[in-house]
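Much of what follows relies on a compact textual record of a protein's fold. With that in mind, consider the following protein and its fold in token form.
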Amino acid sequence: MKDVEEEYPKNVSTEEQLKQLPKYFLSEDPNRPLQNVEEDGTIHKYSLHPMTYSAMFILLIEGLERFAYYGLTYTQYPYLTGEYSKTWWPGFSSVEASTFTSASVAITYTSPFLGGMLADGLLGDYWEIVLGIMLLYLPGLIIIALTAFPYLLGDEFPTSSLYAGFVVLMPLGAGAIKSVVNVFGAKQFHPYLQQTLVEKYYINFYMCINVGALFGGVIIPLIAQINLGIAYVIPCCFLCLGLMVFLAGTRRYVRPKPEKTALCQTLAITGHALTKCNIKKLKESNGGKYEDEFVDGVLSLYMVFPVTAMIVPFAIAYNQMYTVFNTQGLVMQHVGFIDASMMNNADAISVLVSGFVIGNFLYPWLEKRGISFPLTYKFAVGTFCGLVSLLSAIIIDYRIHSKYNASGEKVNILWQVFPYAFIGAGEIFTFSTVYDAAFTIAPKEQKGLASAINLFFIGGLPNFICMGLYEACASWFAEDSGVEAYVNSKVYNYLWVLIGISIFGIFINMIPAVKNYFERLADKSKDSTANESLLLTKSSIIGMSDILDGVKTAEILP
């Protein structure tokens, strides 16, 4: 019998690798020949090719949902400021529109806390996605579409309905499913034997987001220029299609049960931590009432906070796409049908190109040569891309001022390719990386909650910060629309503030002590997950009670 510490491949995807595995990892299902056993004895079966067997349905709903979300998001600011119609719009100023947009995005990225808890402790990932779409997301899109048809909901513009759709239902629905859809896809991979394949899944996941964003960002703005109401009906149809695609894969999914007890215990331990600040006393070994390994798992969950916080400076730069970049685009010279909304697609194209190059060439090249690319260094590179994007935007800002003051002409909008392109490249090094890191570090019982923490630092906290910055810097923004009002504003001062934030983000991620700490944390989390999967699966099949004892004393944290 092999020693329990013996390692097996962590990228199992071929029949040859399958033949080399011990029997306790093998099921009798030819379509899903791998198996993993949970602590309660539940056996989950996995495909050799989970990406095409089951995860593809999850990637497809993500792409279709992102089509709907970004199609609306890219046209939201122009809709609010009357770009599409000066007779049917809410009459928002640029600052009001920026605050409204940031509020919508902030709620989208904060509500995953509720979604994550419901998924982890009550509904499970599958039903969280289905019910989130049916009860919140889709009704929100329908209400938004109705507001775009003049006088359909009344003689005056239905601002309250606009708020209900854009600031309540749509962001709550998007947040509810966003907290679990990426995690649900990662759970289709064997936690030990396919561990290294998850990073590639997250690159594909993030690229899929941007495929949806690209098509939604092209089709919806184009139709919005003709008929906004019709344009806003399309996202409703695509979200319905996404739900049907997701349901079609039901029988293929690995669907771990929600763990209500684990969630309640996590919340109880968290409450104790906030009031008494000494979690370790709750361990059984210290006279507490919770198993040692569970308390260690909660501590692992807390570690998601500092990891994901490292990308906040980049996320602040990223969120300027929907506000400052749009503000600039609205006063630049359009090229044919390419307007400010259409330019957002340069970001999606950049993500797709960057993701392909990085995922298929850079990372494999580094891996073959045994070169480590530390987590925080990836964040630093991504934040540097955000910095270059902001520098590009400030150059464009100065160019808008100088050209208009010299000749009264506008700057060609295609110059915005540069800030969008650099932001897109940065997303691969930051967002797709932090998705993987949060999933890896979190305990298996709280993957949804870990995803919620991650999303909060990607879009929730950065947008709350941006809202505060907009209000604090309101005097630098134009109160009216048009290039003349923009030239009389001082948006460049706001951009310099953001540049300072990005420089700080690069610096903090490059500190050797910070890098070393997070590398140790990630490595130990991977080892712990793999060890638990191996031991539980092995013990359930061959009855090794001493191995189970080993699981209960496994070290999780540094």
Q: What stands out?
A: Residues 388 and 529 are 38 Å apart (CA to CA). The radius of gyration is 24 Å. The longest helix spans residues 112-147.
